[in-house]
Amino acid sequence: MTVLSVNVNKIALLRNSRGRDYPKLLKFVEQLLALGVKGITVHPRPDERHVTRQDVYDISQYLRSRSDVEFNIEGYPSEDFLDLVMAVSPAQCTLVPDQPDQLTSDHGWDVSANASQLTDVLARLRKAGIRSSLFLNASITAVELVPGVDADRIELYTEDYARSFGTAAQDKVIAQYAAAAAKAHELGLGINAGHDLNLENLPEFLKIPHIAEVSIGHALVVESLQQGLAGVITQYLAITGA
Q1: 74 a catalytic residue
Q2: How far apart are CA 168 and CA 34, in angstroms?
Q3: Contact predicate 51/8, CB 8 Å
Q4: Is this prediction's pTM over 0.85?
Q5: What CATH number is given to the structural domain containing 141?
Q6: Active-site residue among 43, 70, 155, 223?
Q7: What is the dihedral sign for C-alpha 61, 96, 112, 146?
Q8: Phi and psi for 21 in degrees, rounded to 5?
């Protein structure tokens, strides 16, 4: 089974665009859990353009009564971000190499160039009992460096796969992801995936063995607008085997 972790950033962005608490983010989280979702992801950014620090505290508090649901906080490991993570102690923290003004995540870590920083941050997460994951391109070379900084998991950045889906390059690209995942599994790393996965391309991607979790937000919200939330969640859960 693969855990579906729903990224609720876009719901927060929709709320923020009106300047009032509508739609209520916690009500949306509550609805997701009622539909069978077992993971919630947030990516708080410094400018709070979607999920805010208060949202992180509120969701964390709400999920304390739901031990069956994993809370994943992703972001760049600035001191402010790490203070927030340590304060709420989520099940998982996914480190992403984003700049503060970046529109969206668009590349994985250069582990070699950032080894000192990552080693320090990952040790802090481990000491706090928080599972760690590194956002990573689908590269065997990159995966092989992860044990050296002591992360628990990787999250494969899947935009390249999404772009190739349905094209002549699809088989070649997914083979790269499968090879990276196989190397991660061989090294004892957990494997997550995310970015531009959707109802159309997810079934083929999950033919890759050992994918523990997929994080999906943008596409899920768009598809929910088109088809209705309950139907979309049911389809995702069927695909992930939950």
Answers
A1: yes
A2: 40
A3: yes
A4: yes
A5: 3.20.20.70
A6: 43
A7: positive
A8: -85, 60
Closest CA to 179 of 147, 151, 158, 209: 209
Active site residue 218: no
Catalytic residue of the set 50, 155, 195, 223 = 195
Helix axes 53-63, 25-34, angle to 10 degrees: 30
Residue in the block written with tokens 């069978």 = 36
Percent of the chain with pLDDT over 70: 97
Establish whether 185 is a catalytic residue: no
Whole-angstrom distance, CA of residue 61 vs CA of residue 69: 12
State pLDDT tens for residues 49-95.
999 999 999 999 999 999 999 999 999 999 999 999 999 999 999 99
Instruction: Give the tokens for residue 6.
Output: 């729903």
**Token pair for 155:** 């999250």
Query: Catalytic: which of 50, 70, 74, 223?
Result: 74
Structural domain total, the chain: 1
Domain span holding position 211: 3-240
